[in-house]
C-alpha cells in the first residue's frame, strides 16, 4: 500500500537580515494510513517547522523549502493556492502548539469551527454549528452548548487546547498533525484525549504525526518514533525498540534527563552538558559531537548518508546497533 | 515560622453570556474559597484538572484581576490600587509570573533583549546594566545571547520563547515567582537544565516558587508541598512525599493514576474518570467531585465535606476521612451504585 504521507529530503531555510537559519535538513520519512509517528527531540530542533511544511504554513517571502512533501501522491510544495486551501483542514489538519495561533480572538469558538466546516463542505450554517457542538462534546468540553459562544480568552488553557482539537477534527482529515496537543492538559484529561484520538483514528483511518516531549505519551499513542536534533532526524524506528534501547547518544541523554518518579530530589538532574549548535550553516557532520561522550574525529567530518528505508536506523557512526 | 505569602478565602466568579439588557446570564465559578500559605524558600506545587482555576488563582495573586472576595498578603502587607493598600507596582518587584501561553505574554514588536531588559529599567536599573543582566540570564536559561538577543518572539521555537519568559521574570529579582506551566514546553534535557537552574537560584536568592504544572513527575521532584485543586476548590494539600505516597482524596488518586507509564511495553490500566467533566457554571452541590467519585454516598451530594487533617500538615476534604465531622454518617450509609456513564 502507498504511504499517505511521503517526505523526501526536506530542507527548510529561513532567510533573515542576519543570515540564514537552516531549520530543517534533509528530513525524510513516510506515514502509512492509520499509522502514528511520534516526533521527539530537543526544543528548537525543527519539529514544528517540519509539521508546518506539510501544510506550507511558513511565511513565503523569507522561507526557502526544498525537497518533496507528498500527501496522497500530490506534492504540497508544488500546489497552486486553490488546491492548497482545499487541502488545508480537509486532507491535512493541524493542532498547534500555541492555541492562540489557531483561534482568532474576535470570533467565538463555535463560529470558527462552523466556518471551517462550511469552507470545506456544502452545508448550512445551522448544520455547521451542530457539527461544532458535536465536536466540542466529543473532546469533552463541559457544557459544550454554552461554550459554543465563548471567545478563546474565556477558556482555560486546557479547554482551548481541546477546542482546537475539535476544530482540527471537524472536517475528518486524513492526516492529523498534532503539535504537543496534550501538554496543556491535566493527566486525567490527557489520557481521555489520547484515547479519544486513538478511537477517532481507528474510526476515520486517520494517520497522525504527534510531537511530544513526553516519553510516556509517545509510548501510549505511537507506532514509530523519529528523534530530531539540530534540524535532522538522528534516529528512527518502532517506538518500543527506540525508547527501550536507544542507539543514538542524544536519545540516550534525553531519556536519561527525564524526571522519573522517585528521583533523588537533592541531586541535580543529569541534563546533557552544553547547548545545541546554532543553525546558521548546514551541518553535515554530527551536530551532537561537541556534547557527545563517544565522539571521535570521524564524527566531525561529513557523515555518510543512511538508508532511511530500513525499519530502524540512526545517524550515529559509533552506535552499537547489534542490540535491537 | 510565619508565612511569606498568605491567601485567605479567595473567590472569583466570571460573568458570561448576555441577556437582552446586556446583563450576564451565567457565572463561571472559577475560584471558590481558596486558602493557603507558603513559607519563604519553599516551593508549592499546584496541580489539578484543566479549568480548575490554577491560572485564575495565579492571576489574582498578581493582581492582574481583582478577587470578588478574599485576602492576599505578603509578609502581612496587602496590595491593590485602592485606599490603604500598597501599590500594585510595588508588588511586581516582589512577585513575578511566567505565563502558560508563552506567545501571548511577549510583546511581538520587542526584541528578546529589550523584552528582558524592560522590567528592570522601569524599576530604576540603568540601561547598560539591564542589558548586561539580560544577556547573563539568557545564557543561564541555555540560550546563547549572541544568537538570540536580536530575535523577535515569532522567530523562536515554543521552548525557546518559554525560556525567554523565565529570564524576563527573574530579571526583576523577585522574592516569589509563579511558574504557570513554565517548563512544559521544553524537551526533557532542557527541562532538566531549567529545573536545575531554578533550584540553584532558589538556594542563591532564597526564592519562593509557586509551581503550576500538569507534569506530576516534575511536580514531585521540584515541590516541597503540593496543593490539588478541583473545580475551583482545594481538595487536598500537604508535604509532597506524604501526598504522593498516600493520596487521601479520590480525585488525587485518579489523577496520580492517569500518568502514562514511562517504560515501554508496560501499558497501564488507567482509572479513566467516569461521568461528565465538571461544569464550572453549575458546580455540583455537596462535594464537587461526587458525580464522578466511585466512593460517593448520599451525603456527598448534599453536604460539602470539611477539610480535615490526614496526618501532620497533610489535609483533604472528603467524608471518607476518619477526621471528617460527618464520617460516621458516611460510614453508615449504603454505597450508591455507579452505572458507567460515558
Ligand atoms: N519564522 C522563523 N524565522 C526564523 N527562525 C525560525 C522561524 N521559525 C522557527 N525558527 C527557528 O527554527 C528552529 C526550529 O524551530 P521549531 O519551531 O521547529 O522548533 P521545535 O522543534 O518545534 O521546538 P519546540 O519543542 O521548542 O517547540 C528554531 O531554532 C527556531 O528558532
Ligand atoms: N476571562 C474569563 N471569562 C470567563 N471565564 C473565564 C475567564 N478566565 C477563565 N475563565 C474560566 O475559569 C475557569 C478556570 O480557568 P483557569 O484558566 O484558571 O484554569 P486552569 O486551572 O489554569 O486550567 P488549565 O490547566 O487548563 O490551564 C475555566 O472554566 C475558565 O473557562
Ligand atoms: S466526599 Fe464523597 S464524593 Fe467527595 S471525594 Fe469523598 S467520597 Fe467522593
Ligand atoms: Mg515546536
Ligand atoms: Mg492554566
TrEMBL record, chain B:
Indicate the segments forming the ABC transporter domain, all copies: 5-256
Its subcellular locations are:
Cell inner membrane; Membrane
Q: Which UniProt keywords apply?
A: ATP-binding, Cell inner membrane, Cell membrane, Hydrolase, Membrane, Nucleotide-binding, Repeat, Translocase, Transport
Q: Which domain of life is it from?
A: Bacteria
Matches recorded under PROSITE patterns = ABC_TRANSPORTER_1, ABC_TRANSPORTER_2
A GO cellular component term found in this entry reads: plasma membrane
Q: Which InterPro entries match?
A: AAA+_ATPase (IPR003593), ABC_transp_ATP-bind (IPR050319), ABC_transporter-like_ATP-bd (IPR003439), ABC_transporter-like_CS (IPR017871), Oligopep_ABC_C (IPR013563), P-loop_NTPase (IPR027417)
Q: What class of enzyme is it?
A: translocase
Q: Specify the signal sequence span.
A: none
According to UniProt, the reaction catalysed is: glutathione(out) + ATP + H2O = glutathione(in) + ADP + phosphate + H(+)
- Pfam annotation, one family: ABC_tran
Recorded GO terms, molecular function? ATP binding; ATP hydrolysis activity
Q: Name one GO biological process term.
A: transmembrane transport
Instruction: Report whether Transmembrane helix shows up as a keyword of the record.
Output: no
EC number(s) of the enzyme? 7.4.2.10
Give the membrane topology.
Peripheral membrane protein
State the similarity comment: Belongs to the ABC transporter superfamily. Glutathione importer (TC 3.A.1.5.11) family.
Instruction: Describe, as the record does, how this protein assembles with itself and its partners.
Output: The complex is composed of two ATP-binding proteins (GsiA), two transmembrane proteins (GsiC and GsiD) and a solute-binding protein (GsiB).
Q: Function of this protein?
A: Part of the ABC transporter complex GsiABCD involved in glutathione import. Responsible for energy coupling to the transport system.
Please identify the protein, giving its name as recorded.
Answer: Glutathione import ATP-binding protein GsiA
Organism expressing this protein natively: Nitrincola nitratireducens
User: In the UniProt record, what gene is named as encoding this protein?
Assistant: gsiA_3
Amino acid at each position: 500500500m502507498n504511504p499517505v504521507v511521503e517526505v523526501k529530503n526536506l530542507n527548510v531555510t529561513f532567510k533573515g537580515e542576519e543570515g540564514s537559519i537552516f531549520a530543517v535538513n534533509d528530513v525524510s520519512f513516510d506515514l502509512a494510513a492509520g499509522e502514528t509517528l511520534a516526533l521527539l527531540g530537543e526544543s528548537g530542533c525543527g519539529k514544528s517547522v517540519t509539521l508546518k511544511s506539510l501544510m506550507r504554513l511558513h511565511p513565503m517571502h523569507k522561507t526557502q523549502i526544498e525537497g518533496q512533501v507528498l500527501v496522497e501522491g500530490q506534492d504540497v510544495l508544488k500546489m497552486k493556492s486553490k488546491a492548497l486551501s482545499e487541502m488545508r483542514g480537509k486532507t491535512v489538519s493541524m493542532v498547534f502548539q500555541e492555541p492562540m495561533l489557531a483561534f482568532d480572538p474576535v470570533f467565538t469558538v463555535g463560529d470558527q469551527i462552523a466556518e471551517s466546516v462550511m469552507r470545506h463542505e456544502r452545508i448550512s450554517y445551522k448544520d455547521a454549528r451542530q457539527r461544532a457542538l458535536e465536536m466540542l462534546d466529543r473532546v469533552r468540553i463541559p457544557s459544550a452548548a454554552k461554550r459554543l459562544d465563548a471567545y478563546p480568552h474565556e477558556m482555560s488553557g486546557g479547554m482551548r487546547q481541546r477546542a482546537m482539537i475539535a476544530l482540527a477534527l471537524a472536517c475528518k482529515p486524513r492526516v492529523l498533525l498534532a503539535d504537543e496537543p496534550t501538554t496543556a492538559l491535566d493527566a486525567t484529561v490527557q489520557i481521555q484525549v489520547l484515547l479519544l484520538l486513538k478511537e477517532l483514528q481507528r474510526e476515520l483511518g486517520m494517520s497522525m504525526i504527534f510531537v511530544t516531549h513526553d516519553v510516556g505519551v509517545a509510548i501510549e499513542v505511537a507506532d514509530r518514533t523519529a528523534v530530531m536534533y539540530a534540524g535532522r532526524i538522528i534516529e528512527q524506528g518502532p517506538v518500543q525498540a527506540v525508547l527501550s534501547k536507544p542507539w543514538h547518544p542524544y536519545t540516550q541523554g534525553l531519556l536519561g534527563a527525564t524526571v522519573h518518579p522517585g528521583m533523588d530530589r537533592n541531586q541535580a538532574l543529569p541534563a546533557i552538558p552544553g547547548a545545541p549548535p546554532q543553525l546558521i550553516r548546514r551541518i553535515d557532520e554530527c551536530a551532537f559531537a561537541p556534547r557527545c561522550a563517544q565522539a571521535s574525529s570521524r564524527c566531525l567530518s561529513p557523515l555518510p548518508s543512511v538508508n532511511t528505508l530500513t525499519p530502524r536506523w540512526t545517524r550515529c557512526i559509533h552506535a552499537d546497533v547489534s542490540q535491537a | 515560622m510565619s508565612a511569606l505569602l498568605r491567601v485567605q478565602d479567595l473567590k472569583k466568579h466570571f460573568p458570561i453570556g448576555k441577556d437582552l439588557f446586556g446583563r450576564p446570564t451565567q457565572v463561571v465559578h472559577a475560584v471558590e474559597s481558596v486558602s493557603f500559605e507558603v513559607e519563604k524558600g519553599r516551593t508549592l506545587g499546584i496541580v489539578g484538572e484543566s479549568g480548575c482555576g490554577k491560572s485564575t488563582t495565579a492571576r489574582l495573586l498578581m493582581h492582574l484581576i481583582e478577587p470578588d472576595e478574599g485576602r492576599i498578603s505578603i509578609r502581612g502587607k496587602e496590595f491593590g490600587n485602592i485606599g490603604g493598600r500598597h501599590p500594585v507596582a510595588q508588588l511586581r518587584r516582589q512577585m513575578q509570573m511566567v505565563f502558560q501561553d508563552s506567545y501571548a505574554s511577549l510583546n511581538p514588536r520587542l526584541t528578546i533583549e529589550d523584552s528582558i531588559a524592560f522590567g528592570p529599567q522601569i524599576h530604576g536599573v540603568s540601561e547598560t546594566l539591564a542589558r548586561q543582566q539580560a544577556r547573563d540570564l539568557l545564557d543561564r536559561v541555555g540560550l546563547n545571547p549572541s544568537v538570540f538577543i536580536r530575535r523577535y518572539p515569532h522567530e523562536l521555537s515554543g521552548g525557546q520563547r518559554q525560556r525567554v519568559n523565565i529570564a524576563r521574570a527573574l530579571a526583576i529579582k523577585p522574592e516569589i515567582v509563579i511558574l504557570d506551566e513554565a517548563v512544559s514546553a521544553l524537551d526533557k534535557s532542557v527541562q532538566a537544565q531549567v529545573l536545575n537552574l531554578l533550584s540553584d537560584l532558589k538556594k542563591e536568592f532564597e526564592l519562593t516558587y509557586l509551581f503550576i504544572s500538569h507534569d506530576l513527575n516534575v511536580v514531585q521532584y521540584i515541590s516541597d508541598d503540593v496543593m490539588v485543586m478541583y473545580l475551583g476548590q482545594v481538595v487536598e494539600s500537604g508535604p509532597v512525599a506524604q501526598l504522593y505516597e498516600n493520596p487521601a482524596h479520590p480525585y488525587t488518586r485518579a489523577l496520580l493514576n492517569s500518568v502514562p507509564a514511562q517504560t515501554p511495553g508496560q501499558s497501564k490500566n488507567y482509572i479513566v474518570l467516569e461521568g461528565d467533566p465538571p461544569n464550572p457554571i453549575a458546580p455540583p452541590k455537596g462535594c464537587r467531585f461526587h458525580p464522578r467519585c466511585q466512593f460517593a454516598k448520599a451525603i456527598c451530594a448534599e453536604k460539602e465535606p470539611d477539610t480535615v487533617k490526614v496526618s501532620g500538615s497533610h489535609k483533604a476534604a472528603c467524608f471518607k476521612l476518619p477526621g471528617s465531622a460527618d464520617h460516621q454518617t458516611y460510614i453508615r450509609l449504603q454505597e450508591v451504585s455507579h452505572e458507567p456513564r460515558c
